[in-house]
Amino acid sequence: MLDLQFICDHREEVEQNCKARGVTVNVEAVVRLRDERNKLIVAGDELRRQQKEASGKIPKASAEERPQLIELGKQLREQISEVESQQKAVEEELRSEQAQIPNMTHPDVPVGGEDDAAEVRFGGKKPEFDFKPLDHVEIAAKLDLIDFEAGSRVAGHGFYYLKNDAVMLEMALVQFALSKLRSEGFTLYTTPDVARDSVLEGIGFNPRGDETQIYSIANTDLSLVATAEITLGGALKDQTLNISELPLKFAGLSHCFRTEAGSHGRSTRGIYRVHQFTKVEMFAFTSPDSGQSDAVHQEIVRIEEEIFQALGLHYRLIDTATGDLGGPAYRKYDLEAWMPGRGDGGSYGEVTSASNCTDYQARRLNIRCKSPDKKGTQYVHTLNGTAISCARAIIAILENYQQADGSVVVPEVLRPWVGKDVIAV
RNA sequence: GGAGAGGUGGCAGAGUGGCCGAUUGCACCGGUCUUGAAAACCGGCGUGGGGUCAAACCUACCGUGGGUUCAAAUCCCACCCUCUCCGCCA
């Protein structure tokens, strides 16, 4: 959520930003509702003051004065409850308008849609094949690594069983990512796979809407998490941190559940777009100065790149354009790994993303920090980034490391955990 | 799942209808004393909203949401959470 005061003071900038992001919102309504709310607050405060005054006199009042004061108090109570219900209605409307306004955007972010992302740089080397590379579905079939049929029988389309060495590969990726993050000073967590709807909303998900990506659990206020971003960010909900302990860097392992409503037929082959996968996520809380959050953002991207470099995979780093940012992000970098079996002749597929959400999530989650020299508190900045998203990383490994004989070489850094150098029949 | 206890400011911990936004202790900040430090003493010290050039000031907040009352931390209801014991269980 964007700061109310900021929206009202920078109306044109906010409107321009929404336009660049392709979001239609009613900034005018926010300003109008804010003014309306303020009037009601002032009126309510005055009535409450009068009521306090009247009821404060009662204990000392004479027998004659008392009934009058009680009568006055009754009247004031009615007026107050009238003003309060108006205020509540206005605030509800205000909040829902305000919630639709996306975060502001880093000035260097390219303007446009999905195709306007800026290519920042490339890493690793594209593999060369002297045979026609297969896609991960075919490779997995030959090596008996994924059971899609069992997945559908048991849970439906979009679910799968990893099997045999694919299981070891997934565990190896998790171990590798966690080891790397521990050495980078992250605090490691395994997190709940469910969270309260209020936490999901704080991070920026709509758990129960028509177009939700979220599985919710009937008769509870719990939903399955779509990413550990939700549980890691939510971990410090309503907390006030000391600015000297920032930045805090968390890493969390969780399962991720997504309904993928409305995306059927779009890159759904294999395990590219699935309803459940395992992911190691980074999350950082920084002080509210964009210098620190920008620096941590670069650090998160650096770590993502180092992970894919260590895996020996070719990738490109893109700076996501305004229209493709999503509400909470101020800036977002995606790492796209080369997937030789994808599409016709290979293509890049998104494997990580790293967002700086500035104070947008912190405001709704109410995560603040305090500095000794400043009165009051400020909202922290939050950032998140993927260390390893297992399903897609497995696609990249299988397709890039496939051999003419159908076997798959295990990336060197994963061998200690996979326990072999080559996955073969 | 059953029984009990409890949730109050950074922490500990009083407060059972009006004098309570809240006693006290610790922590923290400033000062006196001291060569310096500690101790002692004095003073300060919550968060949000409104308001103001800035203050003053007003208002809200004692787990959350409702209710009773002229008046609620305090009484009533629901929910959430924590702890102890019992049962069940990987």
Question: Which descriptors apply to this entry?
Answer:
425 residues; alpha+beta; Helix Hairpins; BirA Bifunctional Protein, domain 2; 2 domains; 8-stranded mixed sheet; 3-stranded mixed sheet; 17 strands; 20% strand; RNA-binding
Brief account:
The chain has 13 helices and 17 strands. With 425 residues, the chain is α+β, with helices and mostly antiparallel strands.
Largest sheet: 8 strands, mixed
Query: Over the alpha carbons, how many angstroms does the gyration radius reach?
Result: 26 Å
Total helices: the number is: 13
Total DSSP E strands:
17
Question: What's the architecture of the largest domain, going by CATH?
Answer: 2-Layer Sandwich
The low-pLDDT segments are none
Mean pLDDT, all residues = 92
Structural class of the helix and strand makeup? alpha+beta
Strand order of the largest sheet: 1-10-11-12-15-9-8-4
CATH superfamily of the largest domain: Bira Bifunctional Protein, Domain 2
The geometry reads as elongated
Q: CATH topology of the largest domain, what is it called?
A: BirA Bifunctional Protein, domain 2
How helix-rich are the residues, as a percent range?
40-55%
Number of discrete domains: 2
Order of helices and strands: HHHHEHEHEHEEHEHEEEHEEEHEEEHEHE
In terms of DSSP E residues, the strand content is 15-25%
CATH class of the largest domain: Alpha Beta
First-to-last CA distance:
52 Å
